[in-house]
Amino acid sequence: MTDDNEASISKEPAVSHNESGHAVATRHDDHALPERFENPGLPDHVHRQGDNDEAAARRSERQVATLFGLSMLATVLFVVAYAVIGKDDNVTLPILGKVHALHVALGVTLAVSMLGIGLGAIHWAKTLMSDEEVVEERHTLRSNDDARADFVKVMSDGADSAQIKRRPLIKYSLGGALGLFAVPLGLQLVGGLGPFKGDVEDLRTTLWDTEVPVLGADGKPEMKNGKPVTRPRRLMRDPDGTAIRLSDVTLGSVFHVLPEGINDTEHPINQKVKASVILISLQEDRIKNTRERDWGINGVVAYSKICTHVGCSVGLYEQTTHHLLCPCHQSTFDLTEDCKVIFGPAKRPLPQLKIDVDDEGYLYAPHGFDQPVGPSFWERG
């Protein structure tokens, strides 16, 4: 062994054993290493203004109560807006343009209600709740009986630390804010399960149930016995708005359809959605249901596009299997058997729209659907 090797070996850290028998490095390059590092401890606690000044604490209390009060006011306004603003009322906003006033009112008031509770809780924690640093030593995961018995005391001490007992203004304002905040949630839950104002008939009908006026050569509606002459609505391409002739519908073709005369400026968007129809041509001998065959023409049939599960648009057609697919939750309908459900969460077939052809060869709907379209509702029956 050379001298260089001896020098290199001498620089290796020496190893000794402590009282517990564990190896401890004692030197490295002739510098001793500590056996353990000392606990640096916690920095000195910095007291807040409210900790020593009762006037400042009361000021913080009033600020927290004000935020909770703002939340209560916004919740009340939410309920008022829900009951007063009509479903067809609109408002024009920057960037967004024309939007439903009810949606804006509910969104703003609910946001302010939540913000008031959140900011109030944060300000309460920052200014009044105890912020003393606490160190908890590790212990056995399963608490012993004494620790469990002490749990109630710890929770009680926590309530005292939060000053919830000393600050009744905060206690009552928080209770009011949280209590009222449950109202919009319950209102949305109950109101969302069915028409809140009893407007059930709107769910039973679509624009296919109404007719359009017959126009004369001068472009004005024809009159008979002082009343406009009307006729059933034709099937129009969506979004082109052009009428569909029976000769346009070749075998295997698919048309997305809206009723004649629909106008975005006159009819709400929900009317357009409810009246959406898919028109498909298949071999007539593949249709197994007699009624479905009779309500179509030469294998051309029309069905509502609104899924009977949660109202998504059923717009995917598989020509080989003659299946209609809802892309939202994969409900699948068999077009050869009156669109009965063969897979997925939907429980009812898609409603069929009876179609016919007029003297000019255009497809039209003699009447509307024989049942409400879309998902179920309480009064459906």
Automatic annotation (TrEMBL):
Residues 26-58 have a biased composition (Basic and acidic residues). Its main location: membrane. One of its GO terms (molecular function) is oxidoreductase activity, acting on paired donors, with incorporation or reduction of molecular oxygen. It is a multi-pass membrane protein. InterPro entries: QcrA_N (IPR045603), Rieske_2Fe-2S (IPR017941), Rieske_2Fe-2S_sf (IPR036922), Rieske_Fe-S_prot (IPR014349). The keyword Transmembrane helix applies. Residues 1-58 are annotated as: Disordered. Keywords: 2Fe-2S, Cell membrane, Disulfide bond, Electron transport, Iron, Iron-sulfur, Membrane, Metal-binding, Oxidoreductase, Respiratory chain, Transmembrane, Transmembrane helix, Transport. Residues 295-364 form the Rieske domain. Pfam families: QcrA_N, Rieske. It is found in: Cell membrane. One of its GO terms (cellular component) is plasma membrane. The keyword Membrane applies. The chain crosses the membrane at residues 64-85, 100-122, 174-196. Iron-sulfur subunit of the cytochrome bc1 complex, an essential component of the respiratory electron transport chain required for ATP synthesis. The bc1 complex catalyzes the oxidation of menaquinol and the reduction of cytochrome c in the respiratory chain. The bc1 complex operates through a Q-cycle mechanism that couples electron transfer to generation of the proton gradient that drives ATP synthesis. Belongs to the Rieske iron-sulfur protein family. This is Cytochrome bc1 complex Rieske iron-sulfur subunit. It comes from Flexivirga endophytica.
